[in-house]
Amino acid sequence: MSHIDTARPGTARSGAARPQESATVAELVGTASEQLSRLVREEMRLAAAEAQGKAKRLGAGAGLGGAAAVLALAALGAFVAAAILALALVVPAWGAALIVAGALCALAGLFGLAGRANIRKGTPPVPEHAVADVRQDLTMIKERGRR
């Protein structure tokens, strides 16, 4: 039968509690090191969970956006045909098609520029809350270390 050591920092191996005031410097450093390690592991776990949640939302948004794009493309085809047919009443059919194609190219350029600007604003995707928590923890550790 194996024995598992369940002693916590600040307690003797026999299980009897030692008062925190009588803990040695080595024990206090060990406790601080263990707590810091635990804090870092927990912050990493939280950062991973936050990133995973964001990735799921991005995936769902991309899927819905793709479905919307397919439907919008079908509607756009119908609108383009209607615009060409309407303009063909005033100008020759080839001229109507050329006018509508030019207008669509101009719109595509504007949308492309707006999309590129939004992508630049959204990168890099960083787990902001976790980063802020780690920075706060580091600041607190530095302040306590100066005391």
UniProtKB/TrEMBL annotation:
Matches recorded under Pfam families: Phage_holin_3_6
Annotated TM spans: 64-87, 93-114
Stretch list, region Disordered: 1-21
Keyword Transmembrane carried by entry: yes
Lineage: superkingdom: Bacteria
Alphabetical UniProt keywords: Membrane, Transmembrane, Transmembrane helix
Protein name: Phage holin family protein
Organism encoding this protein: Nocardia veterana
